[in-house]
């Protein structure tokens, strides 16, 4: 009789212990689910310093709206083979800049110019550089200048980052020299603010926009950057 009594007590204790274990597991699972539901989604930051990659691919897209002949295209691409850009992001502020020896482009331009039979290459290059000094006066918010002694063209565009929308709006658009705007807007609106999308994939930051020409042809503009090591800002 005593053995049966102890056996009943033991079985009751096991059953009670099982209830406590199940209740504890259920509570932990509930807490885990609650934490997962309340955890804020991580917003990927692009703060820091970036340097351009795949520049010639980007330039080809900028050349497209011009409808260039293959010879002209090849000449221009060769002139920009050393072209580089920098991007700096601090909070919601962005700065995109480049310095470029514009004599290289001017010489390539001379090869396809109708003025080739009217002036020497040096005269053409000098005229081009002087024209750039006038062009940079159009910028009201950007820092842009032409060093007439070296032919170095300097450009710094400012913009605003919207991390939630993953866009960057540049105050006066984006343009390479005076010839290749990253927009299909006409000349009267070339210096208007322009908004681009951005994404980061496999460590590459891509700033891009899809637009249409006046003939309703699709155009895709794209700039690519990789992060400068150890410059990510928290």
List keywords for this structure.
234 residues, alpha+beta, 8-stranded antiparallel barrel, 30% strand
Number of strands: 11
Largest sheet properties: 8 strands, antiparallel, barrel
| Topology pattern, helix = H, strand = E | HEHHEEHHEEEEEEEE
Radius of gyration: 30 Å
Percentage of residues assigned to helices = 25-40%
Describe this structure in words.
Helices cover 35% and strands 30% of the residues. The chain has 234 residues and is an alpha+beta fold. A hairpin with a 5-residue loop joins strand 10 and strand 11. It starts with a helix and ends in a 7-residue tail after the last strand. The strands form two sheets. Strands 1-2-3-5-6-9-10-11 form an eight-stranded antiparallel barrel. Strands 7-8 form a two-stranded antiparallel ribbon. The chain contains five helices and eleven strands.
């Amino acid at each position: 009789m005593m053995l049966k009594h102890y056996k009943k007590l033991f079985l009751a204790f096991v059953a009670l212990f099982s209830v406590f274990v199940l209740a504890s597991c259920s509570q932990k699972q509930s807490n885990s689910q609650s934490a997962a539901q309340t955890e804020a989604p991580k917003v990927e930051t692009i703060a820091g310093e970036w340097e351009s990659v795949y520049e010639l691919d980007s330039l080809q897209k900028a050349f497209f709206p011009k409808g260039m002949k293959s010879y002209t295209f090849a000449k221009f691409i060769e002139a920009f083979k050393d072209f580089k850009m920098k991007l700096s992001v601090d909070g919601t502020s962005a700065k995109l800049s480049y310095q470029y020896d514009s004599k290289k482009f001017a010489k390539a331009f001379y090869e396809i110019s109708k003025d080739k039979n009217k002036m020497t290459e040096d005269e053409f290059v000098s005229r081009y550089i002087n024209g750039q000094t006038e062009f940079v006066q159009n910028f009201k918010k950007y820092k842009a200048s032409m060093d007439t002694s070296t032919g170095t063209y300097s450009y710094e565009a400012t913009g605003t980052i919207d991390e939630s929308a993953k866009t960057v709006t540049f105050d006066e658009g984006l343009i390479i020299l005076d010839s290749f705007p990253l927009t299909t807007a006409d000349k009267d609106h070339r210096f208007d603010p322009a908004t681009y999308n951005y994404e980061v994939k496999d460590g590459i930051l891509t700033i891009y926009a899809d637009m249409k020409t006046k003939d309703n042809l699709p155009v895709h503009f794209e700039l690519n950057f990789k992060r400068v090591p150890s410059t990510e800002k928290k």
